[in-house]
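User: Teach me something about this protein's shape.
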Amino acid sequence: MKHYINLILTIFLFAGCEEVVDIDLPTSEPKLIIDALIGFNENNGDPLIVGQVKLNLTAPFLQEELPAAENATVEIIDEETGQSFSLLESEPGVFRTGFPDLEFNRDYTLLVNYNGETFTATQQLNKSPIIEDVEQGDGFLFDEEKETEVMIRFTDIPDERNYYLFSFGFDNFLVVEDEFFEDSDITFSYFYEDVEPGDLLSITLFGIDKNFATYANLALAQSGEDGGGPFAVPPATVRGNIINTTNSNDFPFGYFALSEFDTKLLTVE
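Assistant: First, the predicted structure itself:
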């Protein structure tokens, strides 16, 4: 109550002051943001490529919407064959079609040309296990009335250190390392809040590498789990894997990742 009284007294003290004070907020040149997570799935025998390359510019403080970086060109190059695939812009700054059929153990380079500068990153496709089962449980962490337990089961890829990114929808993500369940089956619970019977939940498992796991953890820690995930723009500088080959000092934000993925759906009972 003391805090509220202090606040009220402060309001009364300054209520009669009509002088407008202009505060000069720090500004900087807009920086390019390149968000590029490309997913690959052929579990049903028919390869599926999903994802996008999204280009934005950083915005001044307090501006919520990020402007699109327009008039760019985006390509993905298969380094083994030298073939280049030009991506098509479906809306300003968003490139969703034109991806190559991806293969494991092969380098792919993202090439972005924007405003006279060239930005690149090279990655390989990371493997992912399938999600073997998802089912609704009856447990809860804090609030039985608001929480819905979903149990997810999968088997770790054997004989190697693995990193995974789970997407639970609603901009909720989890980065997992297999240090404590290497080469094993694992079942764990995730708790949704405020979902209703009949809601359709989508759980997606991406295979990622150590570098992207580190990046995603930093981005999630700074933006908050509900802040848009690892491809949200964090409040502090988090360097990704994309470099500016024209001007190394003007690095972009964002990350380029190629991930095999698997998705399971669950209807809340």
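Now, about its shape. Residues 1-15 have pLDDT under 50 and may be disordered. The chain is about 10% helix and 40% strand. If you'd like, I can walk through any region in more detail.
User: That's plenty for now, thanks!
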